[in-house]
Structures are given as C-alpha cells and as structure tokens.
Amino acid sequence: MVAANAYGGGTGMKCSPARQQGDAARLAVLDTRTKIVSEEDARLRLGGQPAQWVTGHFDPLLAEHVRRLRECSSPDRQLIVEITNPARPLLTQRARAELVAALGMVDYVVLKNGQGSAEDADITDRFVENMLRRHRPEGTG
Prior knowledge:
There is one protein chain. The chain is an alpha/beta fold. It has two domains: 1-30, no CATH class; 32-135, 3-Layer(aba) Sandwich (Rossmann fold), CATH 3.40.50.620. It contains five helices and five strands. The chain has helices spanning 17-30, 39-46, 63-72, 93-101, 118-135; strands at 2-4, 10-14, 51-56, 78-83, 108-111. A three-stranded parallel sheet has the order 3-4-5, with helices on both faces. A two-stranded antiparallel sheet has the order 1-2.
C-alpha cells in the first residue's frame, strides 16, 4: 500500500500492516454508501422523526447544490435527498448518489425515477451555459 498525502497523491512510503488495518477500519466508518437506501427503508429509519425531502438530478453535483442542501438541513430534522435521472446524464445515478451521500448534512439518499426539481434544473442549466460561454471559440458568437 502506498501512503497518500493530503492531496490524494502517493508519497512512495509503505505503511505497516497495523497501519493498513487501522486505515481500513477508519475507511469503513467513513463509507457513506450506507446512506443510500430505498424509499421504504428511509421512511422506516425515520421512525416518525421530522424530515426534509429534497429532489434533484445533481448532475453534476455543484457548489450551488451543496449550498441549497445546507439551507435545507436543520438539526431538528433529517435530510433525505432523492436522486432522479435527467434525460442525458453525465454521471450514473449511483455515482451521483455516492457524491451526495458523502455530504455531512445529508442523512439518507434515495434513488428515484421521477423528475428533478425546477430549481435543480436551473442550477444545472446555468452551469452548462456558463461553461459553453467560457469555452466557446473566439468569433463564434
């Protein structure tokens, strides 16, 4: 195993077997994929607790999405995020769910087949328009 520096690159140093086991245990605790559950399971886990449900494509997950989710989170209620599919996704639904599940303010992630919110579509549309404008060859409008 090659140790990683703070930026994710290898340092070239080898870790001891004890260190490798400690790293594996720490990574198991950090595995947020366990937050990805069925809608039924999310409702069961809530057990009547108040919850805020947020729906969106999150394709790609952008800083504006994270700010919106932070605004929706509250210490007195759970935050459940439903990941839906756009017409032409950049990332798979599962990949998007794993990214959203890694956010600390998100309690559970549910995969859905329905439509995302208009607000989510606006966030993505603005991002795409900005990228096209910034990367358009000179003299093409």
